[in-house]
Amino acid sequence: MPLLAEQSATLQQEFLPLLGTDFVEFYAGNARQAAHYYRTAFGMRLVAYQGPETGIRDRASYVLEQGKIRFVITTALRPNHPVADHVYRHGDGVHGIALRVADAKAAYSAVKTRGARILSEPTELRDQSGVVRMFSIAAYGETVHTFVERDQYEGVFLPGYSPLGPDPLSRPAGLKHIDHMVGNVAKGEMNRWAAFYEKVLGFRLYQHFDDHDISTPYSALMSKVMANGNGRVKFPINEPADGLKKSQIEEYLDFYQGPGVQHIALATDDIIDTVSRLRSQGVDFLQIPSAYYEALSSRIGKIDEPLDQLARLGILVDRDDEGYLLQIFTKPVEDRPTLFYEIIERKGSQGFGKGNFQALFVALEAEQARRGNL
Ligand code: FE2
């Protein structure tokens, strides 16, 4: 796709131009069953696989897609394996966020010069469909960023993966792309990781929330949203702030055993349809107190969507100067209260739902109390 003039001007100014998110890799205890959940509940399509049948002896990986979203779910086939160790410590969760670049070699020297901790040197993978170049660096906790150059690759995912036919299980729900991915870090570490994204990856501070924006009498959090130059990649970084009880961020850090990806926001352009489908396919969302909807229309004014449908589905709305957004949060998708999802539809607003933080925190704490962790 040809770049617009202003996009290419932005790219030239950046030392690390990113074309977007390439894939998110999860490490799971049972990748086959996790893939089944993402296919039937979230509607993703299984498109490729690697494992013993394709000559990989120590692990199996399932590649799932919907719109521009690509997830890879990997499991270890034996103990004493880095994937098994990761699952032992963190439970199922995000191991890596892969970012697409036009030139992996240039990206490598850019981030290395700027102090990135290199986890794997640039490698070239080839098969009959072409060539992919990639390398990885460390981010917060055990999370990694992999950089992928794939302009000369026409295969389904990466060399070594077998493409699969149409997926009879997939039930698409209208999910289009990743809007943002949030990391939780320990108290006092937010600024350090915001600075990492600024210095090493050339991101800028996009928005900032403090504990006055996001707090209840019990718990609070602070967040800095970091974004790349073209705004396609947004990484909010959360840290817990002081509260009377354990915050949801501390609960996450406790159960994940350290920093990691807290939630992934998936964009739709018809949130009522998407959430109706996801609910009927078994995705569990946070319960929003009905009082939220009584106060809603005076807070946000006129919107296109019928309020009764939003209330029935539990969808939240927030407005700012640029427009409004609709969003909803799932419960954690693992038994450990760690990773969850947000479904978001933007109607002009480029915010993150600041006006909903209060209502959300109340809902999250109710869940936390039910788990005995508040
Ligand atoms: Fe979010």
Key traits:
nine-stranded mixed sheet, eight-stranded mixed sheet, single chain, 2,3-Dihydroxybiphenyl 1,2-Dioxygenase, domain 1, 26% helix, 374 residues, binds fe (ii) ion, 11 helices, alpha+beta
Oligomer: single chain
Structural class: alpha+beta
Termini separation: 49 Å
**Biggest β-sheet description:** 9 strands, mixed
Tally of helical segments: 11
CATH class of the largest domain: Alpha Beta
Which consecutive residue ranges, at least 5 long each, have pLDDT under 50?
none
What would the principal axes of the Cα set say about the shape?
A: globular
From the alpha carbons, calculate the radius of gyration and give it in angstroms. 20 Å
What does this 3D model show about the protein?
This protein is α+β, with helices and mostly antiparallel strands and 374 residues long. The protein has eleven helices and 17 strands. It folds into two domains: 3-163, Roll (2,3-Dihydroxybiphenyl 1,2-Dioxygenase, domain 1); 175-371, 2,3-Dihydroxybiphenyl 1,2-Dioxygenase, domain 1 (Roll), CATH 3.10.180. It has helices spanning 5-13, 31-40, 82-90, 104-113, 190-199, 248-256, 271-280, 291-294, 296-300, 307-313, 357-370, and strands spanning 20-27, 45-50, 59-66, 69-76, 93-100, 118-127, 130-138, 144-149, 162-163, 175-184, 204-209, 220-227, 234-241, 260-268, 316-320, 323-329, 340-347. The strands form two sheets. The chain has a nine-stranded mixed β-sheet with strand order 6-7-8-5-1-4-3-2-9. β3 and β4 form a beta hairpin. The mean pLDDT is 92. The site of fe (ii) ion has 6 residues, from β10 and β14.
